[in-house]
Every structure is written in structure tokens, then in C-alpha cells.
Amino acid sequence: MEQFNDPQFSVITLTAALNDQPFVPGQIGALGIFEEDGVNVTTIEIEEENGALNLIEPTPRGAPGVTVGDSTRTKIPFAMDHFEINDAVYADEVQGVRQLGSNDDLETIQSRIDSKQVRHARAMDNTLEHYRIGAIKGLIVSKSGKVLHNLYDRFNIAVPASVALGIGAGDVANLGKLIKDSVVFPIEDALDEGYGGLHAMCGRDFHSYLWGQKAVRETFLNTTGASVLRDGIPDRFEFGGVVWERYRTGGKAKAANSDTAYIADGEARVFPLGVPDMFLTRFGPADYEETVNTIGLPRYARQYPMANGKGRHLDAQMNVINLCTRPAALRKLTVA
Q1: At what angle do helices 105-137 and 11-19 cross, to 10 degrees?
Q2: For position 279, what pLDDT does the model report?
Q3: 296 Cβ partners below 8 Å, 6+ apart?
Q4: Using the 8-state DSSP alphabet, how is residue 221 labeled?
Q5: pLDDT, mean over the chain
Q6: Do the Cβ atoms of 301 and 315 come closer than 8 Å?
Q7: H helix intervals, the chain
Q8: Could you give the CA distance from residue 17 to residue 110 in angstroms, rounded to a whole number?
């Protein structure tokens, strides 16, 4: 197994290869709303400033002015979560492929590692997407349902009430006004700053019921977008000041998540776009000797010998925190 001591199998090279695998993002990752960066620590702090926007009462010229109270600042620490995959390449896996004096032995072993790294990368990408779905819900949970980060508790704010649109019981009167009054305006009040639009990730039933509303379909009549009425339900459409997108979990991802869709079939999750530092992803360094105090990368990989000399252990890991720093501006919508 001396070939594994070649620099081609170092932590640096394997990590570079793992991060170079084709990224298979979900729809949240594809939106690009999470600002990614690497840090050289495993705990980050979010500074919360409870400043108020004041109106100033006029005072006589030359007289004392009004005073404005100072804002209060609180630092909230968030520890990164560590995700690790343990695998192996056994000597028997390359038995009969590696030949004495052959020039292609490293390529054969590397292809074996590459195939495993593709699976590792896909599992980590899926985990990252699931994690980010939790961030737009304000509640980040693990595969088993364990709560990792309750953002409402951490920021000491109440969970916004769910909004029932009633779209499962036929056409809703004044649906556009209902969405404005119960979704758009409350989000704007909670956000209290400029934003670039509202986006909703919808479960399949919610998406179908919403498109089935007469008020929604009529907005496309006599417009350049009228052709969508002939093509069935579009995956994405705009209505009431919100872009509604059907979220596709996929059968394999759903099975891996205890047979649960990332966005439940009868609900939608609405969140604002274009707000600086609202959605954050921070990657921390791996717990290897070679990576301590270095800037974190999205993924890491290394290999080391088995005690009995029968092969090599493979490790892949991701150290990450995904946050929504303004969970008060998130909303859950339901069909009924």
C-alpha cells in the first residue's frame, strides 16, 4: 500500500478533488441567497443591534434639541456543526488491477477514491441544502429530527403565526389583497428595511391549489405570458408581489429524510431577497493537524492506513453553519 504515501493522496490534494466534484445544488442553493465565506474558527458571533428609527420633534431655534437613545448590542454565538463520512479503500478492491512495474497504478487507485468522493460530495450537498431549508424556516434540524438551531429562541423573538390562505376549499375572494395584508405587509414591517422581492418555496399541493385559483390564472390572460395557461402548472409564477416556486425534494432525498419532503406538501415558506447579511453560510476548518487555524473550505477529505495493513480509511467532512439573521421576516403559509 506504499502508493498511498504519494503526494497525490495528501489531505490537500484529496480535499481539492472533493471540492472539485460537480455541485448538485437544490433550489435554495441555486437561488444564491446565502452569502458564503470561510473562517478560521468553529464558532461565529452574530451581533444583534436593537436600534429604533426615531421621529424628531421640531424645537425652537437656539433651544436644546431632543435626545435619541443609544441602541443596544448583543452578541449571539453559533457553533458550527460537524458532518463527517467514514469510508475505506481495501487492498482487495484493487487486487488484480495494480501490477508490478505498471505506470497506471495510481490512476486506478485514484479512480476508486474519486468514485467514493462523488458519493460523499453528493451527500454533503444534500445535507447543505437540507440545512438551508431549515434556515428559511427558522428551525434547523438534523436528519433524525434533532433541533440543531432554533433561530427564534436564539434571537429571543416569537415565532410568527402561520397564515392559512384557504386555497384548498375553492376560489378565495380578494386573494391578492389577502396575500398583501397577511404576508407582504407583515414581512415588510418585520424587516423594516429595503429588500429585492419576496420568494416562496411551495410544497406540491400548495403550489397546485394556488395555481388553481381563478384570480391567479386570470392575471395571465391577455398578457405575453398567457401561453403558460396551455402548458399546465408552471414551476414558477408571480402573484400578489411574491414569486411562487414549486420545491422538488426528489424521491431519494425524501427517503433519506425519514420519508419527509423538505417543504411539506400543503405549505409554503416565504422569505425576502436582497437583504444584506440576512442569509449566511460560514465554513470552518477541519479537525486535522494540517488544517487547524486555516480558513475553512466547503469540504475536506483525507486518507490514512488501517492498523492491519489491509487498506486505507477515507474521511470526508464539512464544518458549517447556515443562518437566517432576520427570522422575524420569515413566514409559513398553509393551504387550509
Answers
A1: 60
A2: 97
A3: 38, 39, 40, 282, 283, 284, 285, 286, 319
A4: T
A5: 87
A6: yes
A7: 11-19, 27-31, 105-137, 151-154, 175-179, 185-191, 204-211, 214-218, 251-256
A8: 10
- Residues with Cβ within 8 Å of 277's Cβ and at least 6 positions away in sequence, in order, are 35, 325
The rounded distance, in Å, linking the Cα atoms of 38 and 44 is 11
* Type and span of the H or E element at 48: strand 43-49
Contacting residues for 64 by C-beta, under 8 A, at least 6 apart: none
Nearest to 315 by CA among 89, 111, 122: 89
- What span, in angstroms and rounded, lies between the C-alpha atoms of 287 and 23? 23
Q: In this predicted model, what pLDDT tens digit does every residue of 113-156 receive, in sequence order?
A: 888 888 899 999 999 999 999 999 999 999 899 999 999 999 99
User: 25: helix, coil or strand?
Assistant: coil
pTM: 0.86
Grid coordinates representing 126 are 444534500
Site of grid cell 475536506: 300
Render 268-311 in DSSP notation, one character per residue. Answer: EEEEEES-TTSEEEEE---SSTTTTTSPP-S-EEEEEE-TTSSE
Mean pLDDT on 4-29: 73
Any idea how long the chain is? 336
Confidence of residue 101 (pLDDT cuts 50, 70, 90): low
Helix boundaries (H) for 20-77: 27-31
Residue given cell 427564534 in the structure block: 152
303-316 residue pLDDT tens: 888 888 888 899 99
Q: Is residue 248 over pLDDT 90?
A: yes
Q: Could you identify the residue written with the cell 421621529?
A: 55
- The phi and psi torsions of 14 (rounded to 5 degrees) equal -65, -40
Contact between 41 and 283 under an 8 Å Cβ cutoff? The reply is: no
pLDDT at 259: 92
Q: For strand 139-141 and strand 300-305, is the pairing parallel, antiparallel, or unpaired?
A: unpaired
pLDDT at 16: 80
